[in-house]
Design brief:
330 residues, alpha/beta, globular, binds zinc ion
Length: 330
């Protein structure tokens, strides 16, 4: 089965839309990004998406791009390509994205959530090249996950596998936006690292973080990391707790999946040595030794183009799957 040489990758986020024509080896022939302007609602945003797709296809000068891979903020019904009211896309209530784009672009459209897209992108072009079994975890506003099993995306029964951010690390812990308590995300996402620091300071702990951020309300995860470097007591306490809880979450991942690699992406990985050096030891203290021996914990590699490359990888992965299905004897 020979893969098409070029696909269009489309990354739909709450703040930006990015698209690019991607070659099989991961080279971007053309690419562009524009703000989503999500307040304009789904119809206007879909018009912007279609315009952006036409623009990058024209700029690429590739005459016939066979299909489009899409990574989109969830929740989604992946099988039907329907967007189901994501918090970052207000008004997108059961929007049939795949159908709308197929009509407008006259090409097959393959849609997946942004975390699965990122996992596929890292597996195909980034830190996970050649690795059979890996777990991708993004630590940003929320915590998303994607699983690659035997070089294939593991989708689960209805396309929602890999929600590691909503695995429980404290059974009666902090309220999560999913409605449950004690989810990994409710501690280690950028949002919750910042809110835990603000809560600690509001309860009376002395700290320079409000001054560093220009007010208590402006404290972000990045402020906490700067505070760690400045040896601020609250920042160090919050960060050490974050590492312990993340390590517990990753030890669960190691013990359940026995992966060869865990790739961490998202804004929080800018912490680099403050994160990866202690994390490995803390995970090793919890995970079973034979499983720990074979796993690397590494940063994502794709950087700024991760969204588009991941979306393109969704395209190839789904196209291959459909071809295979069509060839199966009935
Ligand atoms: Zn949750």
């Amino acid at each position: 089965m020979i893969e098409p040489e070029y696909v269009l990758g489309l990354d739909i986020g709450g703040t930006k839309l990015a698209a690019g024509v991607c070659k099989r080896d991961g080279t971007l022939v053309s690419s562009a990004r524009v703000p989503t302007l999500s307040h304009l609602g789904p119809d206007a945003v879909i018009d912007r998406i279609v315009e952006l797709c036409h623009r990058v296809m024209t700029e690429s000068k590739i005459p016939d791009i066979p299909f489009v891979g899409v990574g989109c903020v969830g929740p989604l019904d992946v099988k039907r390509g329907v967007v189901q009211n994501p918090p970052n896309l207000p008004g997108w209530i059961d929007i049939p994205l795949r159908e709308r784009l197929e009509k407008a672009l006259q090409k097959p459209i393959f849609v997946d959530n942004d975390a699965n897209a990122a996992a596929l992108g890292e597996h195909r072009f980034g830190a996970g090249r050649g690795i059979a079994n890996l777990v991708y975890l993004t630590l940003s506003t929320g915590v998303g996950g994607g699983l690659i099993v035997n070089h294939e995306l593991w989708e689960g029964a209805n396309g929602n596998a890999g929600e590691i951010g909503h695995s429980t690390v404290a059974f009666d812990g902090r309220l999560c936006r999913c409605g449950s308590h004690g989810c990994l995300e409710a501690y280690v996402s950028g949002t919750h690292i910042a809110s835990r620091a603000r809560e600690r300071i509001a309860s009376g702990a002395p700290s320079q973080l409000p001054e560093m951020a220009g007010g208590l309300e402006n404290i972000s995860a990045a402020t906490v990391l700067s505070g760690v470097q400045a040896k601020d007591a609250v920042a160090m306490e919050i960060w050490n707790e974050t590492l312990l809880i993340l390590a517990a979450g990753l030890a669960n991942v190691v013990n359940i999946f026995n992966p060869e690699q865990i790739i961490l992406g998202g804004g929080v990985i800018h912490a680099r040595d403050l994160l990866f050096t202690p994390l490995r030891q803390l995970v090793a203290a919890r995970a079973l030794p034979p499983l720990m021996q074979v796993v690397q914990i590494v940063p994502a590699e794709l950087g700024d183009n991760a969204g588009v490359l991941g979306a393109a990888a969704v395209g190839w992965c789904r196209w291959k799957r459909e071809k295979r299905k069509a060839q199966e004897p009935v």
